[in-house]
Every structure is written in C-alpha cells, then in structure tokens.
Design a protein that fits this description.
Layout lengths: L30 H12 L2 H4 L2 H8 L6 H6 L29 H5 L8 H14 L31 H4 L3 E6 L6 E7 L8 E6 L4 E6 L1 H4 L16 E2 L2 H4 L24 E3 L5 E4 L7 E5 L5 E5 L6 E6 L8 E7 L4 E7 L4 E2 L13 E3 L6 E7 L4 E6 L4 E5 L4 E5 L8 E6 L4 E6 L3 E6 L4 E6 L4 E6 L5 E6 L5 E4 L4 E5 L7 E6 L5 E6 L3 E6 L7 H6 L1
Antiparallel strand pairs: 1-29, 2-3, 3-4, 4-5, 6-7, 7-8, 8-9, 10-11, 11-12, 12-13, 12-14, 15-16, 16-17, 17-18, 19-20, 20-21, 21-22, 23-24, 24-25, 25-26, 27-28, 28-29
Length: 524
C-alpha cells in the first residue's frame, strides 16, 4: 500500500513534486521496515496497557459530550454521525440544510451553492467520526507485565530455563533421524514427537506436556523432573519393530531426506514418497500398515508438504515430482484418506495441478491461510502458485542463489529460501527480495517461529542457530552437538525445539523466542 508498484500517474503536487511512493519517516529505510516497526510499537506492552484509553476516545464515552470537551477530543460538527444526510439534498439550489445545522448558530450559514459544496468538501476530505459504541469507560486489557508478580510466573523459572539442552534420546538404530514432527497439543489422543530415520523406521515418542507449560496453572515443581519425550516402547524394547518399519521399496535414486515424509496433525498417519511406481503412500502409525496408495504423477514423487490443519484435521498435501509438476491434494481428517470420498479412495483426484518448473521439484511449502504454494526445482527457480493452480510469480534470488533446497513460509507472507552452499534469501510474498546472507554450514533444516519473526537453522556442523527473520541478524548460537542436524520441529507452545541427528538420536532444546524480543530484553 505504500509503493506505487504499477507506476500509476498519481499527479503532481503544488510544489511540482511528482506523487509516487509514500514518503517514509527517517527511521524506516523501506516500507517493510515501516510496517514491521509500527507493528512492534502497536503490539507492545506500552500500547496494550493504554489501549482502553484510545477506545474511550474513538468509540467510547469520551467521543461526545462534556467528557469529550474535557479530553480535548472535539472535532468539526460535520464529522459527527447523524449531523448530515447528503442523500436528502437533491438539487444544489433547492437542497435544504437539515435543522441540526442551525442549532449551534442560525446566523452563521446562508443557503448557497458555495456553502453546500463546502459542506460536501469538508466531509469528503476530513472524513467522519466512527459510531459511538460505548457510553462508559472500557476496562484495561490484562498485561504480560502483571504476570511478573504472579507466583507461577514464567520468570520464576528463568534460571532453570537457562539450561539450553533438556534431553538427548538415542534410538537403538544408528540410522540418521531424517524427519521430526512434533504434534504435541494436549487435546490429541497421543501428543507425540514422531521421528523417521533414513532406513524408514519410524517412532511415535510420547510427549509429556507438563514441561511445555512452565508457569501455567497446574504446573508444579514436583513435575519438573519429568523429561518431555518418552521413547516409543516398541522401539525401546525392540518388541514391535515390524509395526514401525516401512518395507516397501523406494526408487534407488532417491536420497531419503525430511521432504520425503509428512505426518498428519493427529500423529496417526505418515505419508511417504519416493516409490518406484511414482506413487506416494499413507501408513498407519499404530499398525505400520499401508492404508492408501496415491497415483497422479508421471515420474517419481520427490517431496511432500502439509499445510496447517483445520478443525477436524483436514489439510492440504502437496506432492512434487521429477516430472517437474506439483499436485495439490486434500487430506480428510474425518476419513483419514487423501480425497473427500472413502468410496473412491483408490483413485483420488488432485485439487490442482501446478506447472511451470523445468526440472525436478526438490522442496515445497504450502500455507492454507495465504492460499499459496511455494516450490523449488533442483536447478531453480522457486515459483509461487495459488492453491487453485495459478502461477503468480517466480522468486528470483541473487546471482549466486541458483539451487533451492529448503523453503519455509510464514502466515505473515514472508518466504525464507535456503540455497546450496549456505545461501539464504528472504522474500516478501510479492516477490521482493528483503534480505540475504551466506553462512559456512551446509544447512539441512530450517523453520520459522509461529509469528514469523525468528528463523531457526541447523546443519552438518551440528549447531542450532537463531536469526531475526527480517534481516538475518544472528540472535543466538546453541552449544554444538556431536553429530549433524538432519531435521527440526517446534512443540505447539514454541518452548521446545526437537532436532533429529545424523547419529540416530534426537535432542530437545529449551527455546524461548521472547528472550530475543526487543521489549523483553529492555524490560528484563
């Protein structure tokens, strides 16, 4: 809204300056900065604590009458609702001015064309006051600052939270953990961290929510010794590995990585691609049995992605292939199948076919809230499609950013792309390059915090790093692990980061994005 990207002719000002992009204050280098900094201010505690006073002035009891006068909140009378009804005036000469105008001073105005025009100009140029919704003071909003004084405040656990690593869980198999899905919401039948190894052995590791809810009602220090993740008993006891091993043959040329798997939001099904018959398949995590085979591509399926889930577990699944296309599918949470109709589950039809790539698709991300699919081909570029299949644009990275490998999209519309050889780019959803950086690690996993403000990366050197997403400013480096990182995910409360390691283990880290928030740092 601040940029005249279409180059419209908006005229010339009186001082002969051409009207084009909106002029920004000195503290904002670009429109994105202006929006981001304004949001930080408007969502800050300082504003939250005084929001009720603003409501009182604009919509509330201080909008009109003696309270408005006392608050110096009085405007031109034509701006108030009900003071004028332009529809009742039909002819410039014969129009009558409503009686309300003469209440204040009947001698001030004459019924002339000029006055009527002036009245219309006043309303058009200066707008009108909103409706008055409240006639008594609005209560103040509860503030996070007040939590500091509660006995169960998160700050009470500050020293305990300084510990970066919560636990390490080593699986009997030494196969690298190549996919991690932390679906840990308390209402799930089995809140769990589902892991899949390179050898396609999966584990449903139960999640204990007490650790994730530090400072919440019901949490007690007696429970603090509980570790958040309990190893899948079938894996730990080696008693039911046959229920956890995917034995169907994958295409020999496929390199197993995090993109080959998707776990549904209820932890009950795993979708796997890379099979020689050009399908991707659905397996039950309870039994390990195959429940559905989905065909649609003309070549091997190379990557899968899942959107956020709706109530009931419905979501979009996107499959990318060597045939250079992507297919958008619908996962029915009710029927636990791809497609809407259980009677035709053998041959489900994709919702959309996404074309435009010239090479094998290697990475993809889908956001249902934005209605967008962003995908990367082996030799570039990255494309943005709508979920109806329309190609919107290509994301053209800098000169040396040619081979996209990882994509993460926030619901705010920012897209982080990792290219080969340690190169990152941040694009707006409109295709504008906002920031770029280069690091010395071969990154294997990236993810964005739920608000899209922070980026977490991990790679072959075994170090988890936290960055500010808007400008790639480094915020924190965790202690190095003794093996490379292959996959990552965050618990539902954004307080625990779980990484899958090349050594066949998972590591749980304490993470608190608030500690890098400018307001938290300034106050605490």
């Amino acid at each position: 809204m601040f940029v005249n990207s279409n180059g419209y002719n908006l005229g010339v000002r009186e001082d002969e300056v051409v009207v084009n992009d909106v002029g920004l204050p000195p503290w904002a280098k670009k429109p994105e900065d202006f929006v981001r900094i304004n949001r930080m201010a408007l969502e800050s505690e300082f504003v939250s604590c005084q929001l009720h006073q603003w409501i009182d002035l604009i919509f509330g009891y201080k909008q009109r009458g003696p309270e408005a006068v006392r608050a110096l909140n009085v405007f031109h009378y034509l701006t108030y609702e009900g003071s004028v009804n332009l529809d009742s005036i039909t002819d410039p000469v014969l129009r009558e001015i409503p009686e309300a105008y003469f209440i204040r001073d009947p001698h001030t105005f004459l019924l002339t064309k000029d006055f009527i025009k002036a009245m219309e100009a006043q309303i058009q140029n200066f707008g009108q006051t909103p409706s008055q919704l409240l006639i008594e003071p609005h209560p103040p909003r509860s503030s996070a600052m007040h939590l500091c004084f509660l006995p169960q405040s998160p700050l009470m656990f500050k020293d305990q939270m300084q510990q970066d690593v919560i636990m390490v869980l080593k699986f009997p198999s030494n196969s690298p953990v190549t996919h991690v899905a932390a679906n840990t919401l308390p209402h799930l039948t089995i809140p769990a961290v589902v892991t899949v190894t390179c050898s396609r052995l999966f584990a449903v590791n139960r999640w204990h929510n007490t650790v994730g809810l530090r400072g919440a009602p019901g949490y007690s220090l007696d429970q603090a010794h509980h570790l958040p993740i309990e190893m899948d008993p079938l894996i730990a006891n080696n008693s039911g590995v046959n229920k956890r091993q995917i034995t169907d043959l994958v295409d020999q040329s496929i390199q197993i990585n995090a993109h080959c798997f998707v776990v549904t939001a209820d932890n009950r099904y795993i979708l796997i691609c890379g099979f020689w018959d050009k399908s991707f398949r659905v397996y039950s995590t309870e039994t390990g049995k195959l429940t559905q085979i989905v065909f649609g591509h003309w070549d091997v399926v190379t990557c899968l992605a899942r959107s956020e889930s709706y109530i009931g577990g419905d979501c979009y699944i996107v499959s990318g292939s060597r045939d250079a296309t992507l297919l958008l599918w619908y996962w029915s949470g009710r029927h636990h199948i791809i497609g809407d109709n259980p009677n035709s589950s053998d041959y489900p039809a994709p919702r959309a076919v996404l074309t435009g790539h010239d090479h094998e698709v290697v990475c993809v991300s889908v956001c249902a809230e934005l209605g967008l699919v962003i995908s990367g081909a082996k030799e570039g570029p990255c494309l943005v499609h709508t979920i109806t299949g329309d190609l919107l644009r290509a994301l053209e990275g800098p000169e040396n950013c040619l081979f996209p490998r990882l994509i993460s999209v926030s619901s705010e519309g920012h897209c982080i792309i990792y290219y080969e050889r340690g190169r990152f780019s941040n694009f707006s959803i409109n295709g504008k390059l906002l920031a770029q950086m280069e690091i010395n690690d071969s990154t294997r996993a990236i993810l964005l915090s739920s608000d899209g403000q922070n980026l977490v990366t991990g790679g072959d050197n075994g170090v988890v790093e936290v960055w500010q997403a808007c400008d790639f400013k480094q915020l924190y480096i965790y202690p190095g692990c003794d093996a490379g990182i292959r996959a990552m995910d965050l618990s539902h409360d954004q307080r625990t980061l779980i990484t899958g390691m090349a050594s066949g283990s998972i590591v749980a880290f304490n993470i608190d994005f608030n500690r890098w928030h400018y307001e938290h740092q300034n106050r605490y």
